[in-house]
Amino acid sequence: MAQALSQMMDATAKIPPGMQRGARILYGFKQECDIINYKVPNRDREFTTAYSRAYLSASGPCKGLDDVAIGFDVCMPSSCTSKDLKTIVGIISELNATLAAITDSVCIFGTFAKTNVPMLLGSWIMVSFLSILGSLVILSGVTDYAILPSDSPLRKQFGFELFLAFSGYKNACEILSATKFKKGQIGPINCLRVMSMFWVIFGHVCLFSFNASDNILDFFPILDYFFAQIIENALFSVDTFFFIGGVLLAFMWFKGYEKDKRKLMSPMGWIMFYVHRIIRLSAPYWVALLTYTYLYGPLTQNMPLLLSPGPAPYDPCTKFLWKNMLYIFNFNISEICMGHAWYLATDMQMYVATPIILIPLALFPIAGWGIAIGLLILSTAANVITVYHYNFPPTGSLFGPDAISTDLNREQNYFKLIYYAPWIRCQIYIMGLLVGWVLQKYKDIRINKILNFFLWIIGASLMLTALFGLYHYNQGNPLSLFWRAAYSSLSRLAWGLGLTWLIVSCYYGYGGPINQFMSWNIWVPLGRLSYCAYLVHYYLINYVYGLEKNAIYYSSLWQIILNYFIPVTVLSFALAMILSVLVEVPAGKLETLLLRPRPREKHFKKDDYEPSWEITNSHTNIEEKNLKNGDIKF
């Protein structure tokens, strides 16, 4: 028994060196605590231990959970509940002098028994669903590749077409295919997608590292570097996604409009405008959402980094699942299930409102431009008024004199009224719609070389100003309310103007080596996977960090890149490949087969459908085939 007690004390946390560098959790040694097993003499039961965490007040005796400031890990008998542990903490202090000074500061004990999420009925349903779906994809792929001849008449039968829509072999080949871009195609789109996705992952990895490191003060010197603004302003990566979405939507919608105005503007055309969008984007999102809701908890059991004082009062994923599935959860922070999915809700809400601009642009272009510019001005004004009214910072950065992270209520208001708000984020989306209209309306534009050069300089200057303009502010130099409102309302416009010229110049053949690089066909498969990579990356980061059993210490940015960013990026795109093959591409094919019937005798071809990784924010001609030889394909 003495050996077991000795191991318990050894596995319990000690006050480490560097405590004043911002340690928030004093980790014990979970691996040792998990193996303690002592056979009690003359009794049938065994003495085992469990890893727990004492949450302490940093300002003397604890008066409530609001006082919790630090976690102290202990190894205690597994039969003890959190209440038992708090009761016997006075006895423990006699066994371990380390705890003697903190006995009165204990607010609550967190145990894995209390916080672990078990497999529930919904969990087993998801396991069954994914197993059946995976088996179907494998069986269909084997049938397609090895059993059914390519000229078999069975392939023309509707039932077999539905079955072969799940072919893992064909779907994977279609995702990985990379054709060269031709004139008339928006070459940089996929590169922008991939680079923005890398940027999103990098920003989130750094954020997790900041939150998980036990020497958080050593992280702050990185802010002294000018190029650290790339991390702090990674928020612009999302604006790039919004811009791309607007460009593709307008470009492809007006492409369909030129082919058949009557059908596209008919009631059925507008119904399919929304049905197409919901099916293509919702299929992988709903599977990711349900998988996270019912399987992520069981998969992250017994992770010290994720150990909390207790379960949340409610689970937004189950309580507000219907709101998350209907894309209406971004107006209340407490209703969000997957934190990063706010982008999907905001994007969907802006998509729903796009006919306000698309219809006037199609019928009366001058009026359409007037409406678009008017909405752009109203959005900018709303941004200015909101910043003034709530005294908000210029951006959602964690740093700076007015950082939102210093006040939880202020932070929630900022995200609800600025960051997640479609009436604010629509600025750059509207710009994308106008650019897509221009590209489709004017097939060729001649641009003077000197003018092109200066516009590239202006566009790059605007983007760099938006990206690095808050360097001194993030160094601790305050900004007046006027300049905070100016940056908040105009920075996205500046970013959008830079992206506008990048797209326009490259599309009309004036991008030079930049266009050659960004139109490289290697970006095509990765671009197709970017949507699913976005869906899975955030909680994959959380899972990877959660695998650490002991304290995490920040050493350098290279440590974050090599240990976390590169592995998470590779795993995100690998999981995206699986999600796309299982759900995204089959959903696109099924939509084509079920909602756009073809003559039965015609063989189903690759170009007869438009999977969501091809055009994630668009709608083409409804009744005709979407893509024909020579048509633009992203």
TrEMBL record:
<feature type="transmembrane region" description="Helical">
    <location>
        <begin position="493"/>
        <end position="510"/>
    </location>
</feature>
<keyword id="KW-0812">Transmembrane</keyword>
<feature type="transmembrane region" description="Helical">
    <location>
        <begin position="561"/>
        <end position="583"/>
    </location>
</feature>
<protein>
    <submittedName>
        <fullName>Nose resistant-to-fluoxetine protein N-terminal domain-containing protein</fullName>
    </submittedName>
</protein>
<keyword id="KW-1133">Transmembrane helix</keyword>
<feature type="transmembrane region" description="Helical">
    <location>
        <begin position="124"/>
        <end position="148"/>
    </location>
</feature>
<dbReference type="Pfam" id="PF20146">
    <property type="entry name" value="NRF"/>
</dbReference>
<keyword id="KW-0472">Membrane</keyword>
<feature type="transmembrane region" description="Helical">
    <location>
        <begin position="417"/>
        <end position="439"/>
    </location>
</feature>
<feature type="transmembrane region" description="Helical">
    <location>
        <begin position="190"/>
        <end position="210"/>
    </location>
</feature>
<dbReference type="Pfam" id="PF01757">
    <property type="entry name" value="Acyl_transf_3"/>
</dbReference>
<feature type="transmembrane region" description="Helical">
    <location>
        <begin position="274"/>
        <end position="295"/>
    </location>
</feature>
<dbReference type="GO" id="GO:0016747">
    <property type="term" value="F:acyltransferase activity, transferring groups other than amino-acyl groups"/>
</dbReference>
<dbReference type="InterPro" id="IPR052728">
    <property type="entry name" value="O2_lipid_transport_reg"/>
</dbReference>
<feature type="transmembrane region" description="Helical">
    <location>
        <begin position="357"/>
        <end position="390"/>
    </location>
</feature>
<feature type="domain" description="Nose resistant-to-fluoxetine protein N-terminal">
    <location>
        <begin position="1"/>
        <end position="109"/>
    </location>
</feature>
<feature type="transmembrane region" description="Helical">
    <location>
        <begin position="522"/>
        <end position="541"/>
    </location>
</feature>
<dbReference type="InterPro" id="IPR006621">
    <property type="entry name" value="Nose-resist-to-fluoxetine_N"/>
</dbReference>
<feature type="transmembrane region" description="Helical">
    <location>
        <begin position="451"/>
        <end position="473"/>
    </location>
</feature>
<feature type="transmembrane region" description="Helical">
    <location>
        <begin position="325"/>
        <end position="345"/>
    </location>
</feature>
<feature type="transmembrane region" description="Helical">
    <location>
        <begin position="230"/>
        <end position="254"/>
    </location>
</feature>
<dbReference type="InterPro" id="IPR002656">
    <property type="entry name" value="Acyl_transf_3_dom"/>
</dbReference>
